[in-house]
Every structure is written in structure tokens, then in C-alpha cells.
Amino acid sequence: MWWRVITSPRRLVRRSLAALALAVVAFFCSAGVAIAHDQLVDSVPASGERLDDVPAEVRLTFSGELMDIGTTVVVADAAGQDWAASAPVLDGAALTVPLAPDLPDGAYTVRWRVVSADGHPVSGTVPFQVGDRSPSGMTASRGSEPAPAAATPSASSTSAPSTSAAPAPAAQATDVAERQTTSADPQAPGAEPASPLRTVLVAAVGAVIALGIYVVLHVTRRRARSRQP
Fold first, then answer.
1. What angle do CA 99, 94, 183 make, to 5 degrees?
2. Residue 25: which domain range?
3. Long-range contacts, stretch 84-92, CB < 8 angstroms, 24+ apart
4. Is this structure's pTM higher than 0.85?
5. Could you list the mean pLDDT of each consecutive 10-residue stretch along the chain, which spans 229 residues?
6. Which residues belong to the signal peptide in this entry (predicted)?
7. Is there a single domain that holds both residue 121 and residue 144?
8. Residue 75: exposed, middle, or buried by beta-carbon count in 10 A (0-12, 13-18, 19+)?
9. Hey, is 209 helix, strand or coil?
10. 115, 154: one domain
């Protein structure tokens, strides 16, 4: 009796379709959870902001409370030196990093990495600038250009501005390359590692679909044979 109930064509079709529906729902639920990882919602200084005075700290605010493990924050200048005065302080969804009081003018990048409440690591960058100095050193090179221009228009004096201005494009190219490298980092916000759970669910959905197709074909053939005289 038990074997007949399990092998009933209609029951097999129903159970296969029910299992398929559950697998699809579980897959989309897991995808929704993956999208719901905690993200950076606010920062002080803001991304791309230029400050006249040296900030006392960097404050990052996230969409949810973070886990107090694996938290790293680096406030690096163009040369890669870290200007964080101490370790970051985590308070729920807020992360605070005090800065060195002698922070010089220039461009800085806050590189952060935290662990979301669901255990998933999230990372990103926040660039900002202090003072009027260009991140590529263009201000210094431009400030030295008027002196050769005011000198006697000789061959040596006319070639001096081009020589002094030459490092500026190179420095700018280096800075751009560094930013591109940072954005291509595997730990960037958009570069999330593949979830093993999602892979398993995809395989389960495929298996259930294959089972459903097999059951439908089997029932169809069985009915066709039973109708033959």
C-alpha cells in the first residue's frame, strides 16, 4: 500500500512540482539575503569632500550593526602612509577612527573593511582632501612656473618650465593608476565572493527540474501505453 501511494503518477507529479516550488522560493530568498548585506550609508568626511581644516576623526555609518571581528580602517595619503592615530572604534553601526593631529594637506583615501551582521565581509573606499593642495602635486609645480617665465628669455630659462612641469603629469598618472588598482581590488564593495549556499541551491533547483521533467515524461508514456488496445 505504501509503495503504491509513493509511486502513484499523480502524487509524484504533485510532489515534484511542490519540491520545485520550494526550491525556487528558497533560491530567491537566499538571493534577497545576499543583497541585504550591510552597506556604508554615510561618512564624515563625505566621499570626494574637500576640507579646509584637518578633521579630528573619520566616521563611517552602516545600514546595520556590524560584527566586532575583522574590522580594519586605513587612512592613507598618496604615498600610502597610514594617518590613523589608533585602532577603529566600533559602536553598533558606527565606526570611528581618530586621525593624527599633524595631518598635512593633501589627498587621502579611507580604505575600510568590516564584517556584516550576517557574517559577510564588506569593504570599500572613501576619498577626501584636506587643504588646497592638488593630490598629484600640480599646485607645487604650477607655483614654480612664474619664476622661469620672469627670467631672461634664454634657451635655458625657456626649457626650465617644461622640465619642472614634467613630473606633474607623471604624478597624476601614478595617482590615477593607484585609484584604478584600488577600485579593481577583489575586496571592493561590488566584488563579493560567490556564496556556497547559492551554488548548492542552484544545483538543487536544476535537480528538481530534471526530476519533474522525468516524472512528466514517465507518466505521459505510461498513459499512452495504457490506452493502447
1. 70
2. 13-34+197-227
3. 84/58, 90/66, 92/65, 92/66
4. no
5. 51 66 57 65 96 96 93 96 96 95 96 93 96 55 42 42 44 44 39 50 72 75 71
6. 1-36
7. no
8. buried
9. helix
10. no
